């Protein structure tokens, strides 16, 4: 039997081909569907399912409109909103600014960030904003120099020896108000690379690692 996700995939493909002129499902319908799912759930206090942020539940307009990325770096106290993509192209000066924002704050070094990573970061933020959660992305870690990465490993912080952070292809992030489950589930649904779920207790919670490597998920 076809799942709702299959149906939505099909809908998106048809829309992309111009075979239907309006999106089959809008955010309102998605919310209603999510509410139904919740009503069927066994307990009253469960989190909304990650499917609430099913990335297929969007019209093509979402992907073609100008893209602004709002970023906070807790490590340096910086925050910025950068319009970096318009009319299908990355704006070079804005791209340079984002590469600087995503730099290794400790090692004081930057690198050319993979534009595909920026796309994932932007999509996460923009997608959540559609549900009324208009919050900046907190970037805990972007680029890491090999020395910084080594230091993290020595300190017992979870970091891979061949980390994609060292080539500008990974970021660790959180969005205030979203659980690791929901944010990670959203990023995973984009199918743009690896997703690590780092669950932590405490007021700030954990974080999500996203990279542009192979599609895979893990818990750390
Ligand atoms: Zn990471």
Structure, explained:
By secondary structure, this protein is an alpha+beta fold. It folds into two domains: 1-57, no CATH class; 65-219, Muramoyl-pentapeptide Carboxypeptidase, domain 2, CATH 3.30.1380. The chain is built from seven helices and eight strands, in the order αααβββααβαβαβββ. It has helices at residues 4-16, 27-40, 60-64, 92-101, 115-129, 146-154, 180-190, and strands at 67-73, 78-86, 89-90, 137-141, 170-174, 194-198, 207-211, 216-219. An eight-stranded mixed sheet has the order 3-2-1-4-5-7-6-8. β2 (78-86) and β3 form a beta hairpin. The longest helix is centred in the middle third of the chain and has 15 residues, at 115-129. The radius of gyration is 18 Å and the shape is globular. Bound molecules: zinc ion.
Give me some keywords for this one.
220 residues; alpha+beta; Muramoyl-pentapeptide Carboxypeptidase, domain 2; 8-stranded mixed beta sheet; 7 helices; disordered N terminus; binds zinc ion
CATH architecture of the largest domain: 2-Layer Sandwich
Report the radius of gyration as a whole number of Å: 18 Å
Number of helices: 7
Shape: globular
CATH top-level class of the largest domain: Alpha Beta
Q: Which ligands appear in the coordinates?
A: zinc ion
Helix- and strand-based class?
Answer: alpha+beta
Distance between the termini: 34 Å
Q: Spell the H/E element sequence.
A: HHHEEEHHEHEHEEE
Q: How many DSSP E strands?
A: 8
CATH topology of the largest domain: Muramoyl-pentapeptide Carboxypeptidase, domain 2
How many individual domains? 2
**Main beta sheet:** 8 strands, mixed
Strand content: 15-25%
Average pLDDT for all residues:
80
Q: Give me the side-by-side strand order of the main sheet.
A: 3-2-1-4-5-7-6-8
Proportion of residues in helical segments: 25-40%
């Amino acid at each position: 039997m076809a799942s709702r996700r299959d149906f939505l995939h099909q809908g998106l493909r048809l829309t992309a081909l111009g075979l239907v002129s309006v999106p089959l499902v809008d955010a309102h319908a998605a919310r209603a569907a999510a509410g139904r799912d919740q009503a069927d759930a066994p307990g009253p206090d469960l989190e909304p399912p990650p499917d609430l942020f099913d990335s297929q539940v969007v019209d093509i307009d979402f992907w073609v409109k100008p893209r602004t990325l709002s970023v906070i770096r807790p490590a340096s106290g910086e925050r910025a909103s950068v319009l970096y993509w318009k009319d299908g192209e990355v704006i070079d000066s804005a791209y340079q600014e984002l590469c600087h924002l995503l730099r290794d704050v400790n090692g004081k070094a930057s690198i050319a960030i993979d534009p595909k990573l920026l796309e994932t970061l932007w999509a996460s933020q923009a997608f959540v904003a559609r549900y009324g959660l208009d919050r900046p992305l907190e970037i805990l870690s972007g680029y890491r120099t090999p020395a910084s990465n080594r230091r993290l490993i020595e300190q017992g912080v979870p970091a891979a020896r061949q980390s994609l952070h060292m080539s500008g292809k990974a970021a660790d992030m959180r969005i205030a108000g979203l659980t690791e489950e929901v944010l990670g589930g959203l990023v995973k649904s984009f199918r743009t690379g690896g997703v690590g779920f780092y669950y932590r207790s405490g007021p700030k919670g954990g974080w999500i690692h996203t990279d542009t490597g192979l599609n895979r998920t893990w818990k750390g």
